[in-house]
Input
Amino acid sequence: MALVKSGWLWRQSSILRRWKRNWFVLYLDGSLVYYHDETQRDMDGRIHIKYSCRDVRTGRECRDVQPPEGKSRDCLLTVVLRDGSKTTLCAESEDDAVAWKMAVLEAKSTPVRLHPPKSGAPSPPFCLAAPGVTHVIVREDPYRVSGDQMALGLLAGAATGAALGSFMWMPCWF
Output
């Protein structure tokens, strides 16, 4: 999916309210994904901005939140979700917090249409569009598991279990 913004942000945990530094990636489809580090191997979480974001607040609008030690309140960023929960973040600077807010609002409001490639189309498929149209380059989500992949994995596991004489897969047969 097309990348809108990425970078380091501090994230406040929901239970103990401790601050943790994560690598955040915002995609044009509205996925705000955060990882343990910038290698993007270990995903810590995901927020679907298009579907679950109600509001984005920065700086003094973030009431009842203490920023991490050494950071200003102006660096705060709060994503208010439709279910009433909040994700509180802290950028490195006030300008960075405003940039993240603008990027999140852009990803929230930008319509994304996915068209499957036509058979026989050149790779990548080329299309003509009017000026001002957002072009999106789509790639497969590495964390998405389709039904046929899951079924194939279960079948392979069952075959391995049967070959080894394991009864671990026994409940799958009933």
Summary: The first helix runs from residue 49 to 52.
